[in-house]
Sequence to fold (201 residues):
Amino acid sequence: MVDKESEQRHRNRMKRKKVVVDEKIANADKEQGLLLVLTGNGKGKSSSAFGMVARSLGHGMQVAVAQFIKGRNDSGEELFFRDQPNLNWQVLGEGFTWETQNLARDIETAQAGWEVVKDMLGDPSIGLVVLDELTYPIKYGWLELDTVLADLNARPPMQHVVITGRAAPKELCEAADTVTELVDQKHAFRAGVCAQKGIDL
Ligand code: ATP
Ligand code: MG
Fold:
């Protein structure tokens, strides 16, 4: 049973909280295309980005996804989203560096991939662009950070971009509006569990 005094105290506290929250909401009245970075060693970067793909498609927006590095094309998200009419899905990687083992080809693939991304970033009809695992080609020096930043900066003002990947460069985080670092506290892989359908791929 909740006594009257506690009930009243709770109501007063919530009233004060509502004033603060309402004021914050009233102050956030801008509309703009956002740059988001999802980084860190914890699981959840790409899956969060695909959550935003689902949200955007739900609102009838045009979406483009560019996957760097990743060579496989049997992930659940790709199988699910591929048939969506408002979605342009591009796999621009050939797999992990330790799989390809060919530096010149990795550089060429990444740069050809960026040309595809530039077209996405130049198209104001696309409301959301996801650049999945983009941090790796930057980190390995296959793509110039300055070129990436300049092209992101020149995109249409209402276009959102989500970038995923570990170790996002400082300059990219500084350029972003929203940066989330996912922390790895525990991962089932280290307990010997292989990638599970629906969870990891
Ligand atoms: P997800 O696609 O599941 O959101 P992610 O994008 O955050 O993961 P990536 O670095 O892209 O993480 O790794 C993709 C795959 O590696 C997924 O199968 C994921 O479960 C797994 N993974 C992510 N973080 C870890 C980790 N800390 N240790 C081991 N495996 C991981
Ligand atoms: Mg990922």
